[in-house]
Amino acid sequence: MEIKSRSISRGRASGEVLMTIEPLGFLGGVDPETGEVIEPWHPLKGKNIAGKVLVFPNGKGSTVGSYVMLQLAKNNKAPAAIINVEAEPIITVGAIISGIPMVDRPEKNVYQLVKDGQRIEVDGDNGLILL
Amino acid sequence: MVNLSKEEQKMFDGEVGEAARQSMEILVAMGKIYDAEKMIPVSSAQVSGVSYKTIGDAGLEYLQDLVRKGAKTRVPTFLNPAGMDEAQWKEMGVPGDFAEKQLEILDAYSKMGIMKTCTCAPYFIGIRPREGEHVAWAESSAVSFANSVLGARTNREGGPSALAAAVCGVTPAYGLHLDENRKANIVVDVQCELKTAADFGALGSAIGKLAKRKYPAFRGIKSATEEQLKVLGASMAATGSVPIYFVENITPEYNIADDAGQMTFTDFQLRSSKDELDSGEKPQLVTIGCPHASLEEIREIAEMVQEKKPTTEFWVCTARKLKDEAGRLGYTEKIEKAGGKVVADTCMVVCPLERMGYHVTGTNSGKAAKYLPSLCSQKVAFGKLKDILYR
Known about the structure:
The structure holds 2 protein chains of 2 kinds.
Chain A: E1 2-4, E2 6-9, E3 12-19, E4 53-56, H1 65-74, E5 81-84, H2 89-98, E6 102-104, H3 110-113, E7 119-123, E8 128-130
Parallel strand pairs in A: 3-4, 4-5, 5-6
Antiparallel strand pairs in A: 1-8, 2-6, 3-7, 7-8
Chain B: H1 6-12, H2 18-33, E1 39-41, E2 45-47, H3 52-68, E3 77-79, H4 89-92, H5 96-111, E4 136-137, H6 140-150, H7 159-168, E5 170-172, E6 184-190, H8 197-211, E7 216-219, H9 226-240, E8 246-247, E9 256-265, H10 267-277, E10 285-288, H11 295-307, E11 313-318, H12 320-328, H13 331-337, E12 340-344, E13 360-363, H14 366-376, E14 379-382, H15 385-388
Parallel strand pairs in B: 2-3, 2-4, 6-7, 6-9, 7-8, 10-11, 10-13, 11-12, 13-14
Antiparallel strand pairs in B: 1-5
Helix pairs in contact in B: 1-2, 2-7, 3-5, 6-9, 8-9, 8-10, 9-14, 11-13
């Protein structure tokens, strides 16, 4: 199955799904050394985003979050790919400077169609999610 | 869909190098997010994210990564304030570990061909885009000044998007680059007299909070200097992300949307806004120049403190170029004799004040009053200079 989306950051990658309906901020939200979500009260707190296809609605918080995503990439702890409901500048810039494939505005409800842990592929060049 | 010219497409496809490819990818993505149909050339860029305090190790790594990818600017590009005076950081009391990182950040920007102006008020050192000119500026108060006072056109860029515009020489055409979006949707009838910079700062702080994402137009302001407009815009940008405003008979543009709302601003609101910003305490340090002081402001302060010596330590923050000029004109000497310092390249908000032994800081700026508590753990003494310097 193929879900059409919008290409935001180029590249293709696959991985296991990790999803949340809560917006995510990277500065103070994710440990750049380990990839663990550290924001208190966040539903993903304690989960590791390294190598995952991270599904969340949109970014939030400090713009420095973009740079934290690059630190994660350098430490090999970045997500494999990102799917947002609606892209905003912080996550977008972070994904591009870190070489993380990213799409947004999927035409079908990803939250209903995929499950945590399921292996899927994101094609950032063509704006596709492949199940 | 963002349509690209041949030259822009080449950058996007990586034919002009990796830094240009990454930068154009950022601009295209921004264009998608904000529904731009094309790119437009910019005549200058101003980059924020300079202080080590705000961008940290993560930001430094990002800049060094861009240098490795061969980033070079195509249009005149200049910097926002850093976390310290590049020449005088020891005298300021900035910790050595901080200084080392700050110098690395400045070095990375230099390697990209960016001028180390390190000022939030580039318009006071001759960088003044003309009416209708498109630029990509990031510092929120400079964005407000460029749009409102100069009539130039810029969105409120982030550090990376301004840098991407600098590297590619273009920015996506959306928001304040387009005529139809440069209209006020709230009209503020000012029914009180505004005398000092602090008055303009208090007005800006109050209206910024109410306006949120709306663009205000002011009626009833009879006259205003560039220094006062600077403070008004900076305060609204800080409390409400306001990137443009209009003042009847003063700013080059004064456009009101058909469905604009109305409100009044009275003497009572002015006093409440000032009271709200002021903790009432005596400051350990008074910081002047948020945004950076003009030469005229430095002259006024020099004369004021020569007449009567302040009861606290104080800094006048300004651009390096104006600090040199103030030295030549004898203002710096007067300020130093009165126990003050003229500090270049930085300001009270982005330097590590909280690590320098200060707890209560005085300001006449609505913007500084907003950020000193959160970014520097300071209590704020707010008021006109004659009050806070001698409290």
